[in-house]
Prior knowledge:
Blueprint: H1 4-13, H2 19-32, H3 35-44, H4 46-51, H5 66-81, H6 91-99, H7 104-133, H8 139-147, H9 149-154, H10 159-171, H11 178-186, H12 191-214, H13 224-231, H14 236-251, H15 261-267
Amino acid sequence: MADAATLERLTAEFPWFPRELLNILADSFIETGEVARALTQVRASAAYDVYFAGNRRDDGTLRLSEYDYYLYKERARVAIASLGVNPDLFGEDIVAALEGDVSINELEFRLDAAYERIIDRAPEVKAQWALYYGTDITDAAIVAMFISPSVSQGVLEGRIATTEIGAEAALRGFGLDLNQAERIRFQGISREQAAQVFGTAVEQLPILDVLAQRHADPDDDFDLNEFLSASIFDDPEQRRRIRRLVAQESALFSPAGGYRESREGALTGLLPG
C-alpha cells in the first residue's frame, strides 16, 4: 500500500487521474521506482478503460495522452454547456466522437453549427411538440435531443424523432397529426429522409392534383396522405394510380410533337422509385 507522501506527490503530478488509478500508479511506483513503468501498469488495468473510455484503439495503442484526454473531455463539456444543456447527459456522445477520431476543434465546430440549425427550427418543433403531447418544451431540451441520439432515444423513447418528422412537414406547409407522424417514424424514416419526402411533395402534389382532375380520376384530387402512401408506405394502389395519371397525360401528346420542357420537367420523377 502506497504511503501518503507518495500518493500526494503523484496526485500533484497526475491531477487528471481519479483516486482508483492513482492507487494503482502509486503501488506500482513503489514496486518499480519508475513512473513510466507504473504508468504502463495503470494503462493495462481494467479500471483504465472505465475512466478513459474510448482512448484505447483496437490494437492497444492510445489515441491521446491522459492529459490530452482530460482536456478533450473538458473542452467538449464546456462546448455542450455553452449550448444551454447539461453536459452530463453526453458522456457516451463525447466518447463516440473521440473513437471516431473527431478532433476537439472539429467537435466544437459541429456543435456550434448544429445549434444554429436547431434553433432556427425550434419554433416549429415547439409547435409540433405542443400539438402532439400537450406540453411545452424548452430550447435546451430541443438542443439536447437533436444533438444526442442517446438522449433522444433513451430519455424520450422516440418522441423527438416523431416531432422532427412533424416539424419537417410543417416547415413545408403540411400538417401531420400524431398518428401520421408516428406511422412515418415506424417506417424507419429519419428527419433527413422526411425532409426529402416533404420537399418532393411540395413539388409533385400540385401536378398530381391537376392530373387527377384533368383525367377524371375516380378520386378527383391527390392529397398528402395519398402521396405518402405511395412514397413511404409502398401502397401498390397509389403507386399504380400515379403511373396511370402520368401515362394518361403523356398520351395527350403525340411523339412527333414532343413535350414542352416545362411539361417534361413536371412529369419527371413522378413515378415513385
